[in-house]
Amino acid sequence: MTTATELAKAVRAGELDPVRLTEKVLHGIEAADRIVGAFRKVRAEAALAEAEALASRPDLAALPLAGVPVAVKDVTEMTGEYAGWGSAASARTPSTEDKEIVGRLRAAGAVVVGLTRVPELCIWPMTSDPDGISRNAWNPAYTAGGSSGGSAAAVAAGLVPVAHGTDGLGSIRLPAAMCGLVGIKPGADLLPEGGWYGMSAHGSLATTVADAALLLAVLAGKPELATLGEPGSLRVAVSTDQPLTHAPVPKALCAAVDRVADVLAGAGHRVERATPDYGVEPSLGILGRWFAGPSEQADGLDRTLLQPRTRAHVRLGRALRTAGLIRPGTRDRWLARAERFFEDHDVLLTPALATLPPKAERWHERSCLANAIPSIRLAGFAGLWNLAGYPAMTVPAARHPSGLPIGIQLVTTPGGEARLLAVAAQLERLNPWPRLPGEPIMA
């Protein structure tokens, strides 16, 4: 799969027919998705119709995503489809209109080839349902992550060059890190999704920084984000201290952070060891919201149709809501501490994952507790930045002996998406990674 940037350029120049491109992509999905389990729904006929209509658009030569095949996470309504949220309890009535995210993709010339698999109500960082398991293209024995696991699987397997995701407690960054991708969660002020007490945001997954920036620019309606600048000289804090538990992080994950820190120091940034004052309260606050947020969505569903793990999860969430334990002051106090930390630092560098990825298994058949334990252990570095509403992203950095990619996380202050993308692009040049399994490292 060529990059989205290259595909759009070729379509705009008349060198590539969007219909033929869509046919090729659909053929690839048909051949490979039975292994990686990326898609809940492949929109073969609808996608070809979209490509045919696109080919005759008079503004084709000016569209930023001209003809680019895009996968959309199965949480966003579009004309003729329903948003399934990975649940048998979700309504099956097709939408009569596009939500804003899909509307922006189509206006930019993208062809939506399918809806990607998610765990039920997007609760878990492992994606499986009765119809399939989203697997890591680098090693299919491992999960592609979650909850944007299907989107990550689709991009990492080369089925599409870019995919849409949402991130409530790491749901873009965790699967991106597992699958060797660039994944960005913008700040709460740029592109909110609205769920989970305002912690969730729409974002992008891609194999290159340029592609991630291009898709984010379209989703956010901010074309300037697609232009990657230079980061300048930044104050970079480096920390591998895990919030809340302070449990040891695997050596390979810490070594990747150290490697990136050395690269950034060599590029002229001021790099130092420094850890935010995480405290205990914000981590407990995001745990509470992790239970309570999905329980609000489940209020309108037939709970007898939910998976057993989900029923237990939302039952606890309702209890927390009833007890009044989801309090805005938790976020306010954490935000004040985060702001003090970033008075002295421009970017925070941490591991993306706190443990190695779980195996690809039928997690939907297991209990809530069996899902919750690996989920909490895995996501220690991610969720606090959803609570704060800060931009954060993951970038590939190294490889584990198992063959799995290792990603690092970059965090910055609100409005700093362009800064994160610039740093990531610098890392892409100085510490390059292979775009897809089996490909050589990019020069």
From TrEMBL:
Gene3D superfamilies: Amidase signature (AS) domain. Residues 21-421 form the Amidase domain. GO terms for molecular function: catalytic activity. It comes from the Bacteria. InterPro entries: Amidase, Amidase_dom, AS_sf. PANTHER family: GLUTAMYL-TRNA(GLN) AMIDOTRANSFERASE SUBUNIT A, MITOCHONDRIAL (PTHR11895:SF7), TRANSAMIDASE (PTHR11895). Belongs to the amidase family. This is Amidase. It comes from Amycolatopsis rhizosphaerae. The lineage of its organism: Bacteria, Bacillati, Actinomycetota, Actinomycetes, Pseudonocardiales.
